[in-house]
Structures are given as structure tokens and as C-alpha cells.
Write a structure and sequence with these properties.
The protein is built from five helices and 16 strands. With about 375 residues, the chain is α+β, with helices and mostly antiparallel strands.
Length: about 375
């Protein structure tokens, strides 16, 4: 099912405008609130867009620690695995061929913004979305400034005509609400050294330390796209969750979007690994002031409570340099840029020679001062 948003004044295609937060018509400059757009006709079988979320009660927070937790049902939203590759543009009638993961795109012939509603409705619907706040022009300008700040980046790479493509895409993420419960038993020491007469004494005091923790982590992210580099996506964080919106299809108009490749169960191990590190850091932070800490026993149970299928805004930038492509990413909400640009061998040589010359001069100066004294 192809969904295209038409201007009520002139009938032209409308796209989501990152500045106004509304749909915008390039032809007659009309804007339209997303909330005022009529809902598309969705085939039967849809479910609610947002999962039921139950807040932690005081009883749950204070309950006794137990390490035999039954696995709870996780509230989540899932895309259907059905792949539909063939659509028709409602503007020009051209065939739209997409891969199985595409949920929003543009017509290659007339440029119309197209949302593939059957991949975003019912059980396919994301729960949340963070809309783009940075426009394509702003992203391109910011990226060029970022390149010019690199002291060792080749001058040719910093020239704007090396920019091959810049694409706004909604990347699928799972956001997890996770509880971490556990207990720690440790033996800690405090060591004091003092001198009395001709003797040096070392006094060691031993302490039995016990900690019980019950920590709740909200919206721990893990990207669910097989196409996106996990390290690149992790480095784009943080996203500001106060701007999370309930999912609505018009947010995707004019951008690309993909559905997830991995379910919430498949991605939970990544989120669990992060929470495990956070929880261990928190526990270690509660045991301080000691010379040594030896853990006799450490038990930690990490369980998912909710999983939100969410679309995050990302600008993907491709630079063509020396017959190879360099891929970078920009957080479409905050403007943070990540990626590894090429390095200029000539600039690195000049930099090395300069640093070596300065160090040599300093060594000569220190030597002379030492001889004079």
C-alpha cells in the first residue's frame, strides 16, 4: 500500500519539514499539522501503535532480591517479515522496486515522497519516532565544516564537490526498559602505614561489605538494522528522548526508512551487555574508601520489562575520494557527526617533523640549562 501526502491547496506532494515539524509543500509553501492529516486506510489486522507500559510500583522496587526470576512477557512492537518489493507511484504510475526492509522512499522518476504503509501498519507499526530536526542543507554545511576542522584530513577531501550523496534515513532501533537486581558480598581492606621509632608498621583492617541493588534503566538503545554499522550507530548517541513522538506516518514523508532486521529478543543481548556494565560500575561506586576490594560473590539478574520499536533520524553521508567511498553518519536530531576520514600522508609528515623539531629544541634548551648550572 503506497501512501503519498497531497497538498490540500495545489495537489502537489508534501514532505516532512524538520524546522516547522509539519508537512510542507514546495510548490505553494503550504504547511499542514501532522495531527490534522487524515489517517490512511489500514488493512484489517492492525494493532495499537504503542505498547502498554506499566510503571514500577514501590513494592516492586523494594521487593526482596531473588535470582530465580521468571521471564516476563515483554511489551513490544514487531514488523511483519512479509516482504513486498513491487509498488506503483500514485503520481506518475512508475514502478517502485524496493528491498524487503524499505518502509519509506522516493520515486526515482518524479521524486515524490512515498511511504509504504503496509510495512508500517498493524503489527508492523513502530511504537515511537524521533523526527528529524536538521535539514539536508544544514547537514551538508555542518559536515563540510567538520571536515575542515581536521588538521590531518587531505585538502582534496575537504572540497565540497567530493560529496557523493547525503541521505536522510530513519534507522530502526529497539529501546529497552530493563531492571537489574542483584547482591554483592565482598571483603575489603584499609591499609595504614606509620613509623614508630626505628620501625615502619603496616596496619591492615578487614571489612565485610554487602550490597543489594535494584536498578531500573529506561530506553537503553540497540540498532536493529543489519545494514548499519553497530559501532557507528552507538557513537551517534545520545538521542534526546524527551522528543520521542508516538509514531505517525507523515513523519517519514521525504525520507528513507527501514524496518528492523532483528527482533527485540535477538537484540536484547546487546542491551543487556550495556546494562551489565552500567550496573557493575554503579555497584563499584558504592564500595569506595577502601585500599582493596575482593568480591566473594556477585549475583546480578538483568531482565527486560518493555521494548519499544523506534525509528531514529540519521543522515548518512558518502564521500568519493581516490576511487573509494567513505561513509559517515550524523545524528539527525543533535547534529553529532561520526566516522573515520582519510589521513593525508604529507600533512602527517609535516606534523611529525614539526613536533620532532620542537622536542629536539626543548631537549637542547634543557641540556644547556643543565650545563650552565
Amino acid at each position: 500500500m503506497v501512501i503519498q501526502y497531497k497538498c490540500p491547496n495545489c495537489g502537489a506532494d508534501m514532505k516532512y519539514d524538520s524546522k516547522s515539524g509539519k508537512l510542507y509543500c514546495d510548490s505553494c509553501k503550504t504547511t499542514k499539522d501532522i495531527s490534522q492529516m487524515p489517517l490512511p486506510e489500514i488493512p484489517e489486522g492492525e494493532s495499537e501503535d504503542t505498547p502498554d507500559v506499566t510503571a514500577f510500583s514501590p513494592t516492586e522496587i523494594e521487593e526482596e532480591v531473588s535470582f530465580d526470576y521468571p521471564k516476563e512477557a515483554v511489551a513490544s512492537k514487531l514488523f511483519d517479515s512479509q516482504a513486498v518489493n513491487h509498488y506503483h507511484c500514485q503520481n506518475c504510475g512508475a514502478d517502485l522496486l524496493t528491498d524487503k526492509d524499505t518502509a519509506a522512499t522516493t520515486c526515482s522518476f518524479c521524486g515524490a515522497a512515498v511511504v509504504l504503509g503496509d510495512r508500517l501498519s498493524g503489527e508492523l507499526a513502530p511504537a515511537k519516532v524521533i523526527p528529524f530536526r536538521i535539514s539536508k542543507e544544514e547537514a551538508q554545511t555542518a559536515f563540510q565544516k567538520w571536515c575542515k576542522k581536521g588538521l590531518l584530513i587531505p585538502h582534496e577531501f575537504q572540497i565540497s564537490n567530493r560529496l557523493k550523496s547525503i541521505t536522510g534515513i530513519y534507522v530502526p532501533f529497539w529501546l529497552y526498559d530493563i531492571s537489574a537486581k542483584g547482591e554483592v558480598d565482598a571483603t575489603c581492606t584499609r591499609v595504614r602505614t606509620y613509623t614508630r621509632g626505628n620501625y615502619i608498621y603496616t596496619e591492615t583492617s578487614y571489612f565485610h561489605v554487602y550490597r543489594r541493588v535494584n536498578i531500573n534503566y529506561l530506553k537503553v538503545p540497540a540498532d536493529a538494522s543489519a545494514k548499519m554499522n553497530d559501532t557507528l550507530m552507538d557513537r551517534l548517541e545520545p538521542f534526546h528522548y524527551q522528543e520521542l513522538k508516538d509514531f505517525n506516518m507523515p513523519y517519514l514523508a521525504g525520507y528513507l526508512a527501514e524496518k528492523y532486521n532483528y527482533t527485540d529478543d535477538q537484540m536484547f543481548s546487546r542491551a543487556k551487555g550495556r546494562v551489565d556494565r552500567y550496573a557493575n560500575q554503579y555497584i563499584a561506586g558504592t564500595i569506595n574508601g577502601y585500599s582493596t576490594v575482593h568480591y566473594n560473590r556477585k549475583n546480578l539478574s538483568i531482565q527486560p520489562r518493555n521494548a519499544y520499536y523506534t525509528l531514529m533520524p540519521v543522515w548518512m553521508v558518502c564521500y568519493d575520494y581516490h576511487d573509494s567511498e567513505h561513509i559517515f553518519a550524523m545524528n539527525g536530531q543533535t547534529g553529532k557527526i561520526v566516522g573515520k576520514p582519510p589521513l593525508s600522508k604529507s600533512k602527517m609528515a609535516v606534523w611529525f617533523i614539526g613536533i620532532s623539531g620542537i622536542l629536539f629544541a626543548l631537549m637542547q634548551l634543557v641540556t644547556r640549562l643543565f650545563l650552565w648550572t
